[in-house]
């Protein structure tokens, strides 16, 4: 039996998920829009045998308050499906996962982009399916589409896009020069989809992707999000502050998979974690403190208040006072599961605003500050106790956070036999130990075991 | 005064615009979906100092008739906005122009993609704005949107996308580490567009493109197409079988520019031409004949019949008989100007079906078979007599057609002082001799002279 390794994804956002990262000494201030930075990071991740890098995305500038906006480098950012093709050329093994939303895109368009990226990268593409955190105002609407409608559309979007990827069977391109036959038209399947949200005839004007379908990732952890993940996802990203939360999430989402005829191992669950590491605990803590000191508290608290949306502007309350929870928590149209996680955290730990703020500088994901040994201990505990199939590492700052992790933590994980020393396969699916999906028209609609 | 050179664009489509190209000896049969082919071609074009490569696109498989489809390698193809970012990494000077339609895309999405490509390539992106030849069936419709509506939408699309590119002034990203100010919010302009087709608030979540706006190309030659080009285009692609047609087109489209406050030199008109060249005329003719022999006449005639849409299936008539023009030519929803060009050709030359077929294997563009000297003579005549600012070379076969042109014709053009020996500038706009557009919010809405 093949040794079971944990999976590692790299979550990249601007030049670091921490709002102070761009102000660190030695980092070019515009590094978040510099291709050189991303090339370095991608090649370093590949040297560290990461499964994939994963780019987040938004289709709006979420907060126009001048005080917040002036301090938000991620208000201007890369389009993931433009940057990843460029990174495909400068890497050979690393998976390349782009976030793209199902609410303000059309399935034919995304089917083509991901099919082309999969082709270009030799089977290393992944799609992080989201329903978007906003953006209606840029797509002919007054407001963001409501949560329930977004998930209905996402379910149908998945059916259409996979149907388009199945337009041609794997061996439909024959290219027989003698006869002049380029395509075997008996291996063409016209979709003819008509549903509540989409009417798409097909076929796609692209060959079937090398991986059958690009690896499908899903990050929504609300109830409809879990259901969609259980039915469709290969990779599931989630946020969990404690091992118990992570265990409960994994049991739940893998438990839901059975009714869709899927084996629990066909979903890999990767909790997000922000790792700040150095040879000693004191040095690691100093790195984190340096980042924290570069944040503007008022701007950060306003950003966090919008993000968790509990009906309070935390920037208007004393930093060292308690978090003023209102009696009635408003219904939120985005970040449903993140709102719940933060409410649980507040009720569990009763932090001051300052303490809460320090815990939420990775978007609600866990922050782990430690030596390579203590980080590896933590990863091993979660991995062996059913809390994680691996981790999505939220890099607080680039390129330093990636360099530290690959140089310090990866060798320690490898030494303990927790992580690969060579890529096992050629495609992202092969490296993740995931089956290649069959073609619904040719293989009876089953995923191959 | 700087010497006036002709401009050269390279039209790339699959592994050649000629339907027989993939069957040539020595060409990998799946080369049209091979990145290695495109990398070779792009680097060769750059060695030949081409201004830009230009990828065409469609959002459907236009003809599902099995006899035609089986012989159509371009039924499966690259997404241009996925391939061009990859080519940006392996080139340094070449312009990269992607076709994208305004009928089935949203301006916010395309604004981001082209802004990112312009950033990634250091100011070498171009957008070939089309209203699409079809695809409604893949975008929630029973039929393709009608011509007049498509152009109305295109006009508004242009206003929105350029407004989004102007969201941030050129120097809005300040990145001042000391103060923690990343963006100068006084240089933000929220679009707040509300029109008949689009409601888009903005701002774009990307910096202003290095070129201000990517180079805008336009290929529609119908009356609304010419109007749109006169108002918006930097580059105009067109099809002309004779110098007189080209001269009349240039006079017309540049003449229309004045009413939009534009100088005639701010539009560069590039007629398409398919060049088959070799050291001797006999060798060049033999290359072309070899390609022609690789076409299936019935499939090709059916394709041509659809394309020119004059109400006759040419494949059902004798090859050596006259072209049976019906008394009433049907109104066409696509290729309006191409239909007119072909009707003019038939009435002027009264060809047999076989002769017409041989003239239309480059999509209605002129086919020039000659030595480097005769090709250069032809180019010089068109260039000096007001028939062209340069040419969009339709490469019949890849990579051979590109290798031949760069190795044989380019040196001859350079020897005559008709073409550059070094790139003049850093961006595509600079190489084309085009002004950088000002920001409508900051520079009074004027293009800089």
UniProtKB/TrEMBL annotation, chains A, B:
Output the Pfam families linked to this UniProt entry: Bac_luciferase
| Residue positions binding FMN | 57, 99, 147, 151, 221-222
Alphabetized Gene3D superfamilies for the sequence = Luciferase-like domain
Record has Methyltransferase as a keyword: no
UniProt KW keywords: Flavoprotein, FMN, Monooxygenase, Oxidoreductase
One Gene Ontology term of the molecular function aspect: monooxygenase activity
Per the record, the similarity remark reads: Belongs to the NtaA/SnaA/DszA monooxygenase family.
Domain Luciferase-like, chain residue ranges per copy: 29-389
InterPro entries, alphabetically?
Answer: Diverse_substr_monoxygenases, Luciferase-like_dom, Luciferase-like_sf, NTA_MOA
The protein's name: FMN-dependent oxidoreductase (Nitrilotriacetate monooxygenase family)
The scientific name of the source species is Nitrospirillum iridis
